[in-house]
Amino acid sequence: PAYPEKVDLSNCDREPIHLLGNIQSHGCLLALRSDWFVAYCSQNTEQYFGTAPDKIAGEAIKNWLDKDTLHHIRSGLQSSMITGRNERLFNQFIDATKLEVDISVHHNGEFTIVEFEPVEENRDTTDHFVRSLLSQFYRAADTEELFETVAEQLRLITSYDRVMIYKFLSDGSGAVIAEAKSQKLDAFLGLRYPASDIPKQARTLYLKNLLRVIGDVNAPVYPIFPTVRGQDDAIDLSFSTLRAVSPIHIEYLKNMGVVASLSVSIIVNGKLWGLIACHHYSPKVPSYFQRTELELFAEVFALELSSRLARDRETESLRVRKVHNKIMSTIASDGALIDILTNQFRALNELIENDGITVIIEGQVSSTGITLPEDELRRVVRYLNSQPPSQIIWVNSLAEVVPQYETAVHNIAGLLAIPVSKTPRDYLLFFRQPQTKTINWAGNPQKAASMGPNGSRLLPRGSFKLWQETHSDHCHEWTEQDEMVGESLRVTLLEVMLRHVQERDTILQ
Ligand code: BLA
């Protein structure tokens, strides 16, 4: 009922996935009011409490749960209010039916949400795998090895058919950067997926709620009772562990041939860096115990990752500082600015990977390596001048931003531009040649979605067949690192400028 009339690729981001009003079938949900009376429950209460939903809604929960269990739920709720997360209670009993369950509890502002899942018979709670995983990944020499180790180990431990590390790229698309899978499956490693595969509201939710289990895409969902009209009254299931996922996403998984999935957020410096994504080709619900371990593991993994990334940045900034010092100690104190900078080309060349450097100051041009003819250079500078001032500008494809620019003619595809002075038009430019680049998409990203047979409903793409995109007018992409180096070079140049002006003033006096 709360499902919006129409969802398409442009409003995919607005599908209120936390208000869809259904849960998955592998558990049961109760929403309690502050007086511990049941306000809402899932349709399948009979199975868990021996009572139909209309006989539980409106009643006191103490009729079905004993004192001890209620006590645990109450203290779980208190911890949950502090941590802002679901609190898990292991091996509890429902008094009314003597069913052994794991319980998850949290408060959503209005209700206390209590969720129940049956305890599987033969689970091995003594197998603490986080510790053994940690010793493995501290040994990894670099981040690539770290990702591979993590994927391999997680697959061994969780026994999902496929475990992937999925990384978000700067444009919102994502790539499978590590994979462990059963041999009979095709590899997804290296494949790219468009941003719309995981819309914005889902990503926002995954920042708050770290772990999602989809137990069986073919199982029915259970609506929440009593049914409400419209989204305004729908119960907020953001933190519900049983929340039924978007039907569009269910269809997506079906199209992929996947039956069950698990995904865990990897958060680095407060941002959703990526996901650990697991697929299974038959129904699968990991135990509460495994989920708890996985969450903990994902957190330690994210910490290790951010400390490795910080270490890399530190090494890089040390290198940049050295070049900065070299420039500052060898810089001439007099002469024209353009000559001063030309004399530093060798040092600059060390700093940023390039195929040519050009400096433009008050209409004068000096260069090393490949450069552009003057009229083309003027057109490029015109584009640069139209950008916000006093900032470095990087372009991966000049053909995309400069009218009539011909990459092949000039053999230059992109540039990193550093403004040299406050006055526009003076720049230090690093050029890069074109590089043929192929992106392997899992299906044509332009056809990420299609309309249903009647045109009224959106369907995710039906094919994940390899779709190659080839660019010949892009350079080797400028990275965040290049941006950082460019930015610190901009500061160095400001210092050079300042010194130059001071020298000139001293001479003039
Ligand atoms: C959610 N999409 C997701 C999730 C993943 C992906 C991992 C999180 C839920 C989960 O754990 O399964 C995408 N899954 C992938 C990708 C790979 C993978 C890229 O295994 C690569 C190997 N999806 C579409 C379109 C829409 C869409 C067109 O393709 C919208 C119009 C929506 N995806 C969509 C929505 C969710 C989602 C709404 C949230 C599901 C939910 O949490 O309710």
Q: Please identify the structural class as seen in this structure.
A: alpha+beta
| CATH architectural label of the largest domain | 2-Layer Sandwich
CATH superfamily membership of the largest domain: GAF domain
Outline, from the CA principal axes?
A: elongated
CA-based gyration radius: 29 Å
Broad CATH class of the largest domain: Alpha Beta
* Strand element count: 22
Range of helix content = 25-40%
The major sheet is characterized as: 7 strands, antiparallel
Terminal CA distance reads 81 Å
As for the CATH topology of the largest domain, it is Beta-Lactamase
Stretches where pLDDT is under 50 for at least 5 consecutive residues are none
- Strand order, largest beta sheet: 1-11-3-2-6-5-4
- How many separate helices? 13
Q: What number of structural domains do the residues give?
A: 2
Average pLDDT value?
90
Percent range for β-strand residues? 15-25%
List of distinct ligands in this structure? biliverdine IX alpha
Keywords: ATP-binding, Chromophore, Kinase, Nucleotide-binding, Phosphoprotein, Photoreceptor protein, Receptor, Sensory transduction, Transferase
Domain Phytochrome chromophore attachment site: 142-303
Organism: Alteromonas ponticola
EC number: 2.7.13.3
Summarize the structure in words.
- This protein is α+β, with helices and mostly antiparallel strands and 509 residues long.
- The protein folds into two domains: 12-309, 2-Layer Sandwich (Beta-Lactamase), CATH 3.30.450.40; 331-436 and 481-508, 2-Layer Sandwich (Beta-Lactamase), CATH 3.30.450.270.
- It is 34% helix and 25% strand.
- It has 13 helices and 22 strands.
- It has helices spanning 45-49, 53-56, 67-83, 129-138, 143-158, 200-208, 247-256, 288-330, 337-342, 345-351, 374-385, 407-410, 480-508; strands spanning 22-23, 28-32, 38-42, 87-94, 99-107, 112-118, 162-168, 174-181, 192-193, 211-214, 222-225, 260-268, 271-280, 356-361, 364-369, 393-395, 414-419, 427-432, 437-442, 449-451, 458-460, 466-471.
- A seven-stranded antiparallel beta sheet has the order 1-11-3-2-6-5-4.
- A hairpin with a 4-residue loop joins strand 5 (99-107) and strand 6 (112-118).
- Helix 4 (129-138) packs antiparallel against helix 5 (143-158) and helix 8 packs parallel to helix 13 (480-508).
- The longest helix is centred in the middle third of the chain and has 43 residues, at 288-330.
- It is elongated and about 95 Å long.
- The model has no long low-confidence stretch (mean pLDDT 90).
- The structure holds biliverdine IX alpha.
- Biliverdine IX alpha (BLA) binds next to strand 7, strand 8, strand 10, helix 7 and strand 12.
- This is histidine kinase.
- Residues 142-303 form the Phytochrome chromophore attachment site domain.
- Its EC number is 2.7.13.3.
- It is an enzyme of class 2 (transferase).
- It catalyses: ATP + protein L-histidine = ADP + protein N-phospho-L-histidine.
